[in-house]
From TrEMBL:
Domain Histidine kinase: 171-268
InterPro entries in the record: HATPase_C_sf, HATPase_dom, His_kinase_dom, Sensor_HK_TwoCompSys, Sig_transdc_His_kin_sub3_dim/P
Reactions this protein catalyses: ATP + protein L-histidine = ADP + protein N-phospho-L-histidine
EC number: 2.7.13.3
PANTHER family attached to this UniProt entry: NITRATE/NITRITE SENSOR PROTEIN NARX-RELATED (PTHR24421), NITRATE_NITRITE SENSOR PROTEIN NARQ (PTHR24421:SF10)
Residues making up the signal peptide according to the UniProt record: none
Protein name: histidine kinase
């Protein structure tokens, strides 16, 4: 009898232990499910908060400036024939409001861009002055000091550029020189900035081996992203250039080397 009781107790304990393990696994699974739902809920809340913030900023930017434009355009229409100077002043205000809108919208687009390291996490916006073509000399000096000789040419009459275009042009040169420095062993680079009447043209040439393969390629062709990340920055820059109605081309050169060329439309000076 004692043996039977012992066996029964052991069996009961085994069943109880199995049930406890099942309950434990179920609790773990439920906890994981709850944590996943909480993460999804937090993500949705963050997205909604960001959408609300963007909507508020867009409202502040567009509503104010467009209201000014509407009022001034109406005033100009009223006095167009009787007070042409007043009409001209009103239309000038419309133009300024439109430019301000574009400037602020471009700034907002810059704030909405992903972090430069490709991660999706929020990042702090640097409020220090953004880089521009006026800061090319320090950039080129830094690249040259790192081991890549750079020759710079400025063509045309330099003039103030919209902030977004200025920053984008600088980033194109920075990215191309950085890639040449990293992958174009024993090479040198040439940077050309051309201020045309209707456009800004930027070109960076690497005269050494291909920055993609490390050897002189047999053919030319558009750059494709490599496993080591080459081209990712240029993809982002191509998108930024497209925002301003421009285009960017990056490709291998015959005989080796690499070329990055961008054209960004400009208003008449």
């Amino acid at each position: 009898m004692a043996l039977v009781a012992a066996v029964g107790a052991a069996g009961w304990l085994s069943v109880a232990a199995a049930r406890a393990r099942r309950r434990y696994r179920k609790a773990i699974e439920e906890r994981g499910w709850l944590l996943e739902r909480e993460r999804e809920s937090a993500t949705r809340a963050a997205v909604e908060a960001e959408r609300s913030r963007i909507a508020a900023e867009l409202h502040d930017i567009v509503s104010h400036n467009v209201s000014v434009m509407v009022v001034q355009a109406g005033a100009a229409r009223e006095v167009l024939t009787t007070l042409p100077e007043e009409a001209a002043a009103a239309m000038s205000a419309v133009e300024n409001a439109g430019r301000n809108t574009m400037t602020e919208l471009r700034h907002l687009l810059g704030l909405l861009a992903p972090a430069q390291d490709g991660e999706d996490e929020p990042y702090d916006v640097d409020l220090s002055p953004q880089p521009s073509l006026s800061g090319l000399t320090p950039l080129i000096d830094k690249i040259a000091f790192a081991g890549l000789p750079v020759e710079m040419r400025i063509s045309g009459e330099p003039r103030p550029l919209p902030t977004g275009i200025d920053v984008t042009a600088y980033r194109i040169i920075q990215e191309a020189l950085t890639n040449a420095l990293k992958h174009g062993e024993g090479s040198k680079a040439e940077v050309t900035v051309r201020y045309a009447d209707n456009s800004l043209r930027v070109e960076v040439l690497n005269s050494g081996p291909s920055v993609l393969s490390g050897t002189a390629p047999a053919t030319t062709g558009p750059v494709r992203e490599r496993a080591d990340g080459t081209g990712r920055g240029l993809v982002g820059l191509r998108e930024r250039v497209a925002v301003y109605g421009g285009d960017l081309d990056a490709r291998r050169r015959l005989g080796g080397g690499y070329r990055v060329r961008a054209r960004i439309p400009l208003d008449q000076p």
